[in-house]
Amino acid sequence: MKTRSTVKRVGSTPLDSDTAPGPGALNYRKAAKPTGDLHVVWGPMPVRRVQLLVATVVAFLALIVAAAGADYGELTCTPNWCRWRRAHLVSAQPRMVPRALVREVRSVTGPGKDQLRLWLHYGSSRLSLGVTDTDQGLRFVTAANRDLRTGKSFAIRRRGRWPIAIAGLAALLAALVFIGRLLRRAGYVEIRGDRHRLDVTHRVLGIPFGRREIRTPNIADTGIEWSTHTHFFQGRHAPPESVARLFVELEGGARIALTQRSFHGYGCHVKAERALRQALELRPRSSSARVAFVEELRAHAPYVGPNANSAMHRFGIAWLGMCCGAIGGLVIFGTLGLVLGLVSLDDQVGDVPSLGAILIGAISGIALALRWSRPETTFVE
Fold it and tell me: For the whole model, what pTM was predicted?
């Protein structure tokens, strides 16, 4: 997935390169223990929530597809019992049937093209033996019925559908990579140190994603470097999204960015820059610098449409959240049920636990959609 970013510089002095020599050079070695009492938390950064939710649901669906493709079954019969055991990416409980009640194995048309669903008929009930391709299904039915008539012990295995399993694993890997790319711009940044050295650590869910130590002779000013970012899922006529990162300016005029990566958001950058400036005890900006800084903030403030808070707009967001939440709830319930061995791939969707998962997912989806769609507060100094 390709992205491109164009950087808009603040002022006329460009930022120092990450490998520039001199007192403002960045040190990527293990950071020393900070000696100052400066501590500023920059964030949390807003994450692309809709894309993250869709990628998570796709990951769960891909996991189920991989489990269904890797699924295989083994029918083992002794003179007294017949046992059907299914095994996929997680273990499943075997099903036991008295052999005296077993009548035959039958095949019916499966859900897809060139597929058969196999059934073991015993007494007045039947047991699903899963879905397989036509050739393998016919061979399984013929061998099982032949061995059942002999009355001897036997074991027959139904192989899995490995092309489907490989496709599911590929989709799962792609979803995880996409989630990782989204999380790179999430989390928060911790800034510790003093006016001569700053230790900057980027964390996501408390896990360090990057760390750098910036040694400076003296910091004279701070600011926000704004950029524009485009991505694959952006609308055709949508303007580029604004991203930003903080920088410090030395007494000589050179500027050093605190992070290599820019982050989404607006209010979190303004608050962090203000907190960092207060922690460093810098002198107030001049009138001209203050006017330029405020104009820069206004130019990158998030746009809030005139109908963002209308009833129909909120209803549409809630409806979309309900649909996505219901699907996500069912997918998560099915995945966890398979992992814990509580459900089987042959279970029907209409049972009480499945309907409960759909209801809980729909309610959660509405709440999250309304919460995430609230426009961000726009403010300047």
Answer: 0.60
